[in-house]
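INFO  loader      accepted 1 record
INFO  loader      residues=127
INFO  predictor   begin
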Amino acid sequence: MREIISTPNAPAAIGPYSQAVKANGFVYCSGQVPIDPATGKLVEGDVEVQARQVLKNIAALLSAAGTSLANAVKTTVFLHNVADFAAMNKVYAEAFAGVQPPARSTISGLDLPLGALVEIEVVALAE
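INFO  predictor   done
INFO  writer      dumping tokens
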């Protein structure tokens, strides 16, 4: 069974995809960029500011699906610039403080949607 997850607390899809999909005991979140769902605009600031917004958006999607970051099993981080790795990693560690962090891949040197500095996708266990 497949369920489309949608919430106004995370940015609307900017293309032909779903915010998230729940299937076979997992929640698959589309890559999130640092868009403020209230304004629909990219948040301005450095990679730390943007990573916080991305993780806030992911937490909102997971909450709408009935789960949380604590149940994340795999993330993929996309960075515009590898020089931002340490700053992104600091914010990422804060988001997963107190829980076993998920497996992760990080890819850099990318032109991301809307000129974002960071994008993150997540797969989590559904509760």
